[in-house]
C-alpha cells in the first residue's frame, strides 16, 4: 500500500485522499471493480445467482414455475437483480467519494473528531498527481459501473416488454 504523504500535509494519514484511494482499491469489496471485465462480470453474476436463493422461493409463491414459467423467470430475475443494484450503488458511491476527494483542490479532514474539522489546500504537484489518478484509474471504474447500470436498465426494459407480450 502506498503511504506517501507530503511533508507539510497536516491531514492524518488515514484521511489523505491518496491513502483512501489505495485502501478502497485493495479492499475485498471494491477490488473487483478494478479487475478485468471477465472477473468483474463473474462477481456480478455470482451475486445475482446467490440472490436467487431468496428470490426464487418468493417468486415461486406468486408464479408457480409449473404454470407460469416465463413470469417466474422474469420476476425471479428482477428480484435477484435487486441485490446486484444495491451492491453496484455501494460500489459507485465509494468510488465517487474517493474521486471527489482526489479531484478537489482542498481536503477537509478531522483532527480528532467531528467538532474540529479543518481544510488543507493541496500544493500543485499533489493536485496534478491526484487528478491523474482520477483520470486514468477512477473514471474508467465509474464508467464500468455506469455501463453495468445501463445494461441492467436495458434488461429490466426487455423483461417488461416480454412480460406484457405473454
From TrEMBL:
Please give the name of this protein. CGLD27 family protein
User: Can you tell me where the transmembrane regions are?
Assistant: 44-63, 69-93, 147-165
* Source taxonomy: Bacteria, Bacillati, Cyanobacteriota, Cyanophyceae, Nostocales
Q: Report keywords, A-Z.
A: Membrane, Transmembrane, Transmembrane helix
Going by the entry's taxonomy, the superkingdom of the source organism is recorded as: Bacteria
**Which InterPro entries would you find in this protein's record?**
CGLD27-like
Q: Does the keyword Chaperone apply?
A: no
